[in-house]
Design a protein that fits this description.
By secondary structure, the chain is an alpha+beta fold. It contains nine helices and eleven strands. It has a four-stranded mixed β-sheet, covered by helices on one side. Strands 9-10-8-11 form a four-stranded antiparallel β-sheet. The chain has a three-stranded antiparallel β-sheet with strand order 2-6-7, with helices on both faces. The longest helix has 22 residues. Bound molecules: alpha-D-galactopyranose.
Length: about 300
């Protein structure tokens, strides 16, 4: 009799990229950050296989896949990836990939465990001692909100993101892999208390609290001022900007309808974030003369498991 081979069970996972409204280079020091998951997603489909494999338009995924496999103690899987999170531009495409795989392989995890597991996998894959912000936002972000996350306790609160504002992201065209940047060096200098680095960290954490308050009070101009100060601090004190990114940020500051802008994510190139008054999107894009990604906030991959409490 012919022996029928059972087809392996297929699993699916999906997770969003993220923007960080404010609180840059403070997560790995136990600071407070304010990221939001965005409506750009990575989808993965997989099944058990003899060895690990990945099919994706973006290279380099196998190392991430193996790393999350080790962290989840999973057997080898063949995985297919589809994503509209642009890689290398500061929207955390790698966190979206890791969280999507974790959600597919281990939907039973809670969001905090998933974020910590994916953070370890990212560190293992890249050798970069990243903080937990990106994975946390991708796992636990909430539609209509940003997350005010205390990275020392992992306590967090969803802060409503006003309807009147739109998040814009512009790629500087300077792409980098974190492993090729001085990220670890900046972290070491900050941990060692180097005065300039410390000044950025302390002032940035104060800005995060002020920003969350201004969001809640709909003081939109204040948001713009804080974004501008954050950029100056990242440029001058933490030294993670580049001339190309500075020029793009300054251009955005001058376009009508833009409340403020700054470098976003790890920096050393990547993207800028701007906050725009709703309705001004097309004139802003025209003023920038560059492709602008307008993002809405979205739910994280593990957000549905959380009992939603009223704001
Ligand atoms: C990268 C890291 C995060 C964080 C930011 C800078 O995105 O993955 O943990 O440190 O840089 O704020």
């Amino acid at each position: 009799m012919e022996h029928k081979r059972e087809r392996p069970r297929t699993w699916h996972g999906r997770a969003p990229g993220r923007v960080n409204l404010i609180g840059e280079h403070v997560d790995y020091l136990g600071g407070v950050v304010l990221p939001a998951a965005i409506d750009r997603h990575t989808r993965v489909t997989g099944h058990k296989a003899r060895e690990w494999s990945i099919e994706s338009d973006v290279g380099g995924g196998l190392t991430y896949l193996r790393s999350i496999g080790i962290e989840l103690e999973a057997r080898p899987q063949a995985v297919v990836v589809e994503s509209d999170v642009p890689p290398g531009s500061g929207l955390s495409s790698s966190a979206a990939l890791l969280v999507a795989i974790a959600a597919g392989l281990h939907p039973d995890l809670n969001g905090v465990e998933a974020a910590l597991t994916c953070q370890r996998a990212e560190q293992r894959a890249t050798g970069v001692r990243v903080g937990v912000m990106d994975q946390f936002a991708s796992a636990l972000g909430r539609r209509g909100h940003a997350l005010l996350l205390d990275c020392s306790t992992l306590e967090y609160r969803a802060v409503p993101f006003p309807e009147e504002l739109v998040i814009a992201v512009i790629d500087s065209g300077e792409h980098r892999s974190l492993a090729d940047t001085p990220y670890n060096e900046r972290r070491r200098e900050a941990e060692a208390g180097m005065p300039k680095r410390k000044r950025h960290v302390e002032s940035e954490i104060a800005r995060v609290h002020a920003f969350a308050a201004a969001l809640e009070q709909h003081r939109f101009e204040k948001l713009g001022v804080l974004l501008k100060e954050s950029h100056q601090s990242l440029r001058d004190d933490f030294e993670v900007s580049t001339p190309t990114v500075d020029a793009l940020v300054e251009q955005a500051w001058g376009v009508e309808g833009c409340l403020g802008a700054r470098i976003v994510g790890a920096g050393f190139g990547g993207s800028i974030l701007a906050l725009i008054e709703r309705g001004r999107e097309s004139s802003f894009a025209a003023g920038m003369k560059k492709e602008v990604i307008f993002c809405a906030t979205a739910d994280g991959a593990f957000a549905h498991k959380i009992k939603q409490v009223p704001d």
